[in-house]
């Protein structure tokens, strides 16, 4: 299975512009034979820790406008994981939607949101793609090993980790390297491949992100890492077949 992690400039309150970028990237991914493409946390509307901003930006998954936008990202081959603020009644979630052929086929809500006003998700779905199964943890979820373990126990061989490490400059510097090591810890703990997609750039308030997009194998080896301070795309071919069982970290194979 061919996967891709997109590291893109953060856009804020520019859903139409973000959708244009998404449509372009998904079309490129299809042309490259990408089976699964990952985009950053809250990428669609722009991330915020402010409760009022998150509520204003949030969209319901049955919103016709959202589904029209997603329809513009249609691809017959490439499945895309896209972060957004989601509205469910009066509750707001930091979610990631799974999009296939221009339709939303699933959603995961962040179990441990740091964003003010966001409700924790409680479900840990997985999706089948060819011979692989994948699940989603969002950013800080990786600090809690059980979130990845639950996906692994359900048969996931790949964990997608949309992140948004746009922080105050001193915190952005402080979390850049630990962000990568967190992916390695998750991979070794769960026995899964892990790929992360981060934003890069800055906002009007002076916050910035260096970009910590990476792909890590089940032994914790970083097999691909994005260039810091710039947009990038990581493409990697996972093994042809995902067997049932757990990855043997010493042998480097999946035990059947």
Automatic annotation (TrEMBL):
CN hydrolase domain segment(s): 1-240
GO biological process terms, semicolon-separated: putrescine biosynthetic process from arginine
Coiled-coil regions listed in the entry: none
UniProt keyword list: Hydrolase
GO molecular function: N-carbamoylputrescine amidase activity
CDD domains named among the record's database cross-references: nitrilase (cd07197)
Pfam families: CN_hydrolase (PF00795)
InterPro entries xrefs: Aliph_Amidase/BUP, C-N_Hydrolase, C-N_Hydrolase_sf
Name of the protein this chain belongs to: Predicted amidohydrolase
Organism encoding this protein: Rhizobium lusitanum
């Amino acid at each position: 299975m061919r996967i891709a992690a997109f590291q893109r400039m953060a856009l804020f309150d520019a859903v139409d512009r973000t959708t244009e970028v998404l449509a372009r990237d998904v079309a490129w991914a299809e042309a490259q034979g990408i089976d699964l493409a990952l985009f950053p946390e809250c990428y669609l509307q722009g991330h915020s820790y402010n409760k009022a901003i998150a509520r204003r930006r949030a969209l319901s998954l049955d919103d016709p406008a959202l589904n029209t936008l997603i329809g513009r990202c249609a691809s017959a081959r490439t499945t895309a994981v896209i972060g957004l603020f989601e509205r469910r009644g009066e509750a707001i979630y930091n979610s990631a939607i799974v999009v296939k052929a221009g339709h939303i086929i699933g959603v995961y809500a962040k179990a441990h949101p740091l964003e003010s006003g966001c409700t924790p998700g409680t479900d840990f779905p997985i999706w089948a793609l060819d011979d692989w199964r994948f699940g989603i943890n969002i950013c800080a979820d990786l600090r809690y090993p059980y979130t990845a373990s639950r996906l692994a126990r359900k048969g996931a061989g790949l964990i997608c980790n949309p992140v948004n490490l746009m922080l105050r400059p001193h915190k952005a510097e402080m979390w850049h390297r630990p962000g990568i090591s967190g992916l390695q810890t998750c991979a070794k703990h769960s026995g899964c491949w892990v790929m992360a997609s981060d934003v890069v750039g800055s906002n009007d308030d002076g916050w910035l992100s260096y970009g910590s997009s990476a792909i890590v194998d089940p032994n914790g080896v970083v097999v691909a890492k994005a260039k810091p301070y710039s947009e990038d795309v990581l493409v990697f071919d996972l093994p042809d077949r995902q067997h049932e069982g757990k990855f043997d970290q010493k042998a480097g194979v999946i035990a059947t």
